[in-house]
Design a protein that fits this description.
Radius of gyration: 17 Å
CATH superfamily: NAD(P)-binding Rossmann-like Domain
CATH class: Alpha Beta
Number of domains: 1
Structural class: alpha/beta
CATH topology: Rossmann fold
Strand content: 15-25%
Bound molecules: NADP nicotinamide-adenine-dinucleotide phosphate
Distance between the termini: 25 Å
Length: about 240
């Protein structure tokens, strides 16, 4: 990862924070964003303790101007983007309503943040990657995007769309060295999980224990991997 430029959306907490620290430790330069400035700046400081150069931009990925500012600032500062991790996501209303009761505005908002933003950030980053004919895009999916579960509403449906987007884009880019893959991180101990399953009574993985699959997909060791759906294995599991 030495000197690779890694862009991570939704990096102020949870998995995004864990990925930022893992890539910083591995020697990458980082461009991170989230809507909440205070938490994001804390993560920047934590990552800098590993000696990483970190650009932290307060930005909402569902806002086109914010996306442009985030990507353009990163390209100006670092000259390129080698890896994009589309991690930012929202759950929607909690407790999660059944579809029949799902407010239309909330449904549209979840799809805007979780799907349209993945498309628009990638579309803005891709030209630079294609010019250099090198790059790795990693989208974050979920088990709820692979099987439709009652009560997982717009969130699950948004992840189905992320999976379709990943496969379609991977196929369109199959003759290039720009790779698009996705990771299902599994259930993790984060704010999102607390919103989704407030009465959770089983053990959960910590986000920092499932980062290896992302490091692998970001590196040239996975040069042959394209259009794949990988599941994270918590450290210690077989
Ligand atoms: N936790 C799980 O069990 C689980 C399971 C399967 C998949 N996942 C997936 O893993 C990824 C990370 O989830 P997590 O559990 O770490 O979630 P989380 O703790 O809720 O963190 C989400 C991150 O995304 C940011 N974010 C949300 N909306 C944003 C927006 N519009 N623009 C920019 N940043 C935004 C949040 O910061 P701000 O609020 O400050 O913007 C935060 O940094 C998500 O894609 C999620 O769907 C999670």
């Amino acid at each position: 990862m030495k000197n690779k430029v890694v862009m991570i959306t939704g990096a102020s907490k949870g998995l995004g924070r864990a990925l930022t620290l893992a890539f910083a430790k591995a020697g990458a330069k980082l461009a991170i964003c989230a809507r909440t400035s205070e938490n994001l700046q804390l993560v920047k400081k934590e990552a800098e303790l590993f000696g990483a150069e970190v650009l932290a931009i307060t930005a909402d990925v569902s806002n086109a101007r914010d996306v442009e500012r985030f990507v353009a600032t990163t390209e100006n500062a670092f000259g390129r983007i080698d890896v994009l991790i589309n991690n930012a996501s929202i759950l929607g209303p909690s407790p999660m309503p059944m579809l029949l009761d799902y407010p239309e505005e909330d449904f549209a908002e979840v799809l805007r943040v979780n799907v349209v933003s993945v498309f628009s950030v990638a579309r803005r980053v891709l030209p630079g990657m294609l010019e250099r004919n090198e790059g790795s895009i990693i989208n974050v999916t979920s088990e709820a995007g692979n099987t439709g579960y009652a009560g997982w509403g717009a969130y699950g449906i948004s992840k189905f769309a992320v999976e379709g987007l990943t496969e379609t884009w991977a196929d369109e880019l199959r003759h290039t060295n720009v790779r698009v893959n996705m990771v299902d991180p599994g259930e993790m101990n984060t704010d999102m999980h607390r919103l989704a399953v407030p009465d959770c009574d089983y053990p959960l993985a910590n986000p920092e224990d499932i980062v290896d699959v992302f490091l692998h997909l970001a590196s040239s060791d996975s040069a042959e991997m394209h259009g794949q759906r990988l599941e994270a294995q918590p450290e210690g599991d077989a």
